[in-house]
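User: I'll paste a sequence; please echo it back and then give the predicted structure.

Assistant: Echoing your sequence first, then the prediction.
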Amino acid sequence: ASQAKLSYDEAKAAALKHAGINKDDVKFLRCELDRDDGALKYEVEFTKDGVEYEYDIDANNGTVLWVDKDYD
């Protein structure tokens, strides 16, 4: 099986960079490695100020594949 080139922390950092948020300002809910159609991706979820962010990050190059924001 192929391994992810990015670590959990790098995937989190990529999501935070895209969101323009400092990691000290968020509460991480989840970060897990998943395989989607043979491609590895990280699913990252965090909250800030009542907003829940969900990201899919390419586990090989850190590209943001998908993002969703939920306002509570």
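The mean pLDDT is 95. The longest helix spans residues 8-19.
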